[in-house]
Design goal:
The protein is of the alpha/beta class. 36% of the residues lie in helices and 12% in strands. The N terminus and C terminus are likely disordered.
Length: 294
Amino acid sequence: MSDATAAAGTPSGSPQATVTAIRPGGSRPALFCPPPVSGSIYWCMPLHRLLPADQPLYAFDAPGLDGVAEPLTTISDLAGCYIEALRRTQPHGPYLLAGYSMGGAIAYEMAVRLASAGEAIPLTILIDTALPEPDPGTELSITKRFVNDVAGARGRTLDDVAIESVFEAPNADERLRSLLCAADLMPESVDVELVARRYRLFRANTHAYLAYRPSRYRGRVALVNAESSRNTTEEWRTVCDGPVTHMTVPGDHHSMWFPPHVERLALSLDMLVASLHDQSTLVTAVPDDPGTRV
């Protein structure tokens, strides 16, 4: 392994990520997807049936999701871990990267590091990813994020979850499990250790994301935002020296992954990858008529 290649990955002995070949074959360059704050590939699964049959698709599970390894605590370490997994699957580029929410920040960091190692990164897609802002991330705010993330993964919205009692209980892990079950977000049979493990990973990832300060990057970046989310194009342009394009899809941060919105999201990703073969076409939005580009 060259010095540049080693620099793009993680030190020997670091936790390893699990790679899932959601669709291993196809004529297009593979799309590699680091996970969001949950650390799971669940968000990527609907794309299997919606992207063209010739689009290979791989996703990563985070170290710590299985409860064996300890969660990593920085975006830099996470990016290095996923780069090691990526290289085990495909030793050299070109690499297409796409990440949702916090996963977009990881994809961006992966692109920075891979490009610095001499690899070709034709496109990095950030799906509803905001540029991180300084935030201490209190235990209460992170727990609220966790409960709402669990709700969002199930197609539900909980605008105001009364979780303060979690911190008043002798066993906060058991109280959090009970709260999720009472809100019908998890079955009563769910193990308290599973909930505690997922929360520890979520908390570590949240702190990593809030502390991340992106480096400058000269490659091509595409932002895909839910229509209810803030357009962060100008924010990302403060760190991106290369071209930054923007697309909008229906829904909010979570509902964009559920029918009927996920079909438009998949179309957006397909259009972006297809646009790599037609650099004269600048894709900035998905119009009402999918057969037309704006």
